C-alpha cells in the first residue's frame, strides 16, 4: 500500500496539532523533511521515542515549524504499518503547511477513515470494532462512550462469533449427513439441527432486543415538545437545558421554527426539539413552522405533549391528543400555579395509557419528575448496560434481522422435513449475514460506504 498522510486534530486554534502518516515510506519521507537537534538523520530515531527538531521545506530549506516527531514501527501500530506522527503548534497554518510538505515528498492525502480502514484490512480491528471508533468520537454521554468502548474491545464481535460457531457446527453435521446418508444419522442430525437453530434464534433475539437502546445511545432520543401556542413549550426547553435557549413571551406563536438542542439526562442523550405551536393560522411563516412541527413528530422517539391547565380543553388540544395517542409520549399539564380550568379526568379518558405530570414550569415544579419518567421509560425492564453486547448500529441491526429470517427458515424446514441440502442454504446465508457484522463476509462497496462516514485523519 502507498503512504497516506492527514491532519488528525480538528482545524482551528489549539495548543498542538497532529499530522499523521502511515505506510512503508513514512520513515523515509519524514527523514527528508525533518532536522533533529540531537540526531542528523531521522532514520536513526528510536522506535516510539519523541524527537525534537524542525520540519523544513527541502526545496528551499525554509523552516516551517518547531515540532516533536515520533516513529512507530510496524506491526505494533494502529494500522499495523509504519506510522510517523508530527506534533506541531496548533492552528490552521502550521498543520496545513506540514501536510503540504509531506504530500510534496511522496505521501498521498488520506481518504476519510482510511487509517481505520487499513487497521481493519491488516487485521488490527474487525469491522464492528472499526465502526465503534467513530461512535467513540461522536459519543454524547458517558454511557454512550462506555458502550462504544465495549464494542471497540470486541463485546459484539465475541457474541456474534459465538453464534457463528454454532452455525459452523450445524454446517459440519449437514455435510456429514449428506456424505453418509444413513437413516439413523439423518434423524440424529435433524434433532441436533433443531436444537442448535433454536439456540441461534434465541441469541439473535437477545442482541436485537438491545437495538433500540443502542440506537438511542448512539444518536440520542429524538424528543419532540408538542402543544398549542403559549402553553409553555419553550419554557420547558429552557428548563430542561438549564439555560435560556428559546425566546419566551406571552404572545402566542413566538416559536415559528424548529429549535434543536442536546441534553444529557442520567447518561441518556436527548435531542430536544421545540416546535411551533399547533394551531390553524393565516400567518404564512407560522403556518410553515406548524407544518414542520407535524413532520418532526413522525420521526420522534418520544413526544412531550404540553397542555395548559389554566384554560379549558380546545379543538387544538384534541388535535394534539390524536397525534400522541399512538406515539410513545408523556403528557404535561402545565401552569398548575394558576386557577385550574382543565378537566384532568377528561384528559385521562382520552389517553388512559399515558403518564400525566402536573407542572408549573415557571416555578420549576415537575421538571425532576419529568426527567425521572424519561429515565424510567428508557431503562424499564432492561438490564444494565455495562459489560453487555449492545447493538448500536443500523447496519448491524439489518444484518441480524436478515440472519433471524434465515434461521427461522431453517427451523421451518426442519419441522417440515425438508431435504438437508435445502436447509444448508439457509444456514450458510445466516452465517454469512452475521459475518457481515464483523467484516468477514462484507463486500468492498459496503466497506467504502462505512469508512466514508469517518473524518479524514482517523
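-> sequence recovered:
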Amino acid at each position: 500500500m502507498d503512504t497516506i498522510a492527514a491532519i488528525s486534530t480538528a482545524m482551528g486554534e489549539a495548543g498542538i496539532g497532529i499530522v499523521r502518516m502511515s505506510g512503508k515510506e513514512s520513515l523515509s519521507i519524514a527523514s527528508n523533511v525533518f532536522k533533529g537537534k540531537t540526531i542528523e538523520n531521522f532514520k536513526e530515531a528510536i522506535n516510539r521515542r519523541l524527537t525534537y527538531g524542525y520540519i523544513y521545506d527541502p526545496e528551499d530549506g525554509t523552516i516551517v515549524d518547531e515540532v516533536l516527531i515520533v516513529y512507530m514501527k510496524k506491526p505494533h501500530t494502529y494500522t499495523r504499518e509504519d506510522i510517523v506522527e508530527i506534533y506541531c503548534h496548533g492552528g490552521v497554518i502550521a498543520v496545513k503547511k506540514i501536510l503540504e510538505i509531506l504530500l510534496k515528498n511522496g505521501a498521498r492525502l488520506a481518504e476519510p477513515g482510511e487509517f481505520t480502514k487499513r487497521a481493519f484490512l491488516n487485521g488490527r480491528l474487525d469491522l464492528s470494532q472499526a465502526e465503534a471508533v467513530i461512535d467513540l468520537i461522536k459519543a454524547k454521554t458517558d454511557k454512550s462512550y462506555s458502550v462504544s468502548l465495549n464494542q471497540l474491545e470486541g463485546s459484539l464481535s465475541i457474541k456474534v462469533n459465538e453464534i457463528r460457531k454454532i452455525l459452523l457446527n450445524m454446517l459440519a453435521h449437514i455435510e456429514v449427513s449428506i456424505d453418509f446418508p444413513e437413516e439413523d444419522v439423518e434423524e440424529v442430525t435433524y434433532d441436533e439441527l433443531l436444537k442448535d437453530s433454536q439456540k441461534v434464534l434465541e441469541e439473535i433475539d437477545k442482541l436485537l432486543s438491545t437495538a433500540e437502546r443502542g440506537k438511542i445511545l448512539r444518536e440520542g432520543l429524538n424528543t419532540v415538545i408538542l402543544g398549542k401556542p403559549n402553553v409553555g413549550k419553550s419554557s420547558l426547553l429552557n428548563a430542561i437545558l438549564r439555560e435560556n435557549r428559546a425566546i419566551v413571551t406571552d404572545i402566542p406563536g413566538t416559536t415559528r421554527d424548529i429549535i434543536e438542542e442536546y441534553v444529557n439526562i442520567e447518561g441518556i442523550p436527548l435531542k430536544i426539539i421545540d416546535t411551533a405551536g399547533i394551531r390553524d393560522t393565516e400567518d404564512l411563516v407560522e403556518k410553515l413552522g406548524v407544518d414542520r412541527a407535524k413532520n418532526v413528530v413522525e420521526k420522534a422517539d418520544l413526544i412531550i405533549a404540553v397542555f395548559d391547565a389554566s384554560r379549558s380543553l380546545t379543538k387544538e388540544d384534541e388535535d394534539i391528543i390524536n397525534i400522541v395517542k399512538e406515539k410513545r409520549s408523556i403528557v404535561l399539564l402545565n401552569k398548575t400555579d394558576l386557577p385550574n380550568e382543565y378537566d384532568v379526568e377528561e384528559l385521562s379518558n382520552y389517553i388512559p395509557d399515558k403518564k400525566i405530570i402536573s407542572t408549573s414550569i415557571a416555578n420549576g415544579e415537575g421538571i425532576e419528575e419529568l426527567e425521572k419518567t424519561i429515565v424510567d421509560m428508557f431503562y424499564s425492564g432492561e438490564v444494565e448496560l455495562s459489560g453487555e453486547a449492545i447493538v448500536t448500529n443500523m447496519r448491524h441491526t439489518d444484518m441480524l434481522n436478515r440472519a433471524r429470517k434465515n434461521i427461522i427458515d431453517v427451523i421451518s424446514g426442519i419441522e417440515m422435513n425438508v431435504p438437508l441440502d435445502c436447509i444448508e442454504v439457509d444456514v450458510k446465508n445466516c452465517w454469512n449475514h452475521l459475518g457481515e457484522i464483523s467484516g468477514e463476509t462484507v463486500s468492498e462497496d459496503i466497506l467504502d460506504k462505512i469508512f466514508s462516514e469517518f473524518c479524514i485523519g482517523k
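Confidence is low (pLDDT under 50) at residues 246-256, 381-387.
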